[in-house]
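Dear Dr. H.,

I hope your travels went smoothly. While you were away I took the liberty of generating a structure for the chain from your last submission, since the lab meeting agenda had it listed for discussion. I wanted you to have the full record in hand beforehand rather than looking at slides cold. The sequence, exactly as received, is reproduced here:
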Amino acid sequence: MSRRGRSGPVISLFAFQDIITSVTAIVIVVTLFLALDLVQRKQGQASESPVVLADELVAKIAKVEAELTKLRKELDNADELVKQVASTSPAELKAEIVRHERALEDLRRELQRQEERHARLVAQEQAAAADKFDLDPLRQRIEQTVRETREMQGQLDQEKQEDRVLFTLPRGFNKEGWIAVVESGRITVAPLGRAAKPQVFVSTGTIFKKSAADALIDWIDRDRLRSAYFLVLIRPASSRTFSELEDAFHDKSISFGFDLIDAERTVLHPERGAAP
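The corresponding predicted structure, in token form, is as follows:
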């Protein structure tokens, strides 16, 4: 049998062996470094652990000593109380208990009195609030009356300053009363006994002239005042106007009386007329 010759490429394993050798060397080196670091850490912990333990022990000892001191103080106080109780007779203890019970009862009664007083104060406050609510309308009426009184006082003071003549109708007079102030070419009228703005009548026209008396009579007819009574006040230099008014009153059968008044005397208020 003849040996056959090899054919094809030749496979070499030297490169793969080199890679395996390199990786194994790297793993060994890393393992050595890790082992060295672990040994150093163990040595550091071994060198530091006694110091840490000593500090912890000192802190625990201080805490235990503080608790021991506290317990000793409590024990001393308890011993003192025991000694006081032992030195006190049962009768004295009973008397002390009775005294404290009486003091407690007094405090309870005082508390009850304070609560009752508080309840009374609350009731008084509620009653005061209710009274205030009920008195509000009365207070408003009083304030309104005070305002009206002040206004009337102001009007009275103004009337005193004006020095105005006031006229009234006689008691029992049944007719409606009016006052008429006659000036040259002008007649001003206002009702007696009530506030009203005066009415003014003047002469008008040139060709078809209409006197102030004619204008007043037209107004009397329009307002149906023929049954009223007119008090005529005559100022100086107004005789012609009064004569015309007198004739008109006689023609219409209107009741009137007259009197003289000087030129400076104030008779009618510009807003209230003949009223005070």
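Two observations you may find useful: The chain has a mean pLDDT of 80. The radius of gyration is 63 Å.

With kind regards,
E. W.
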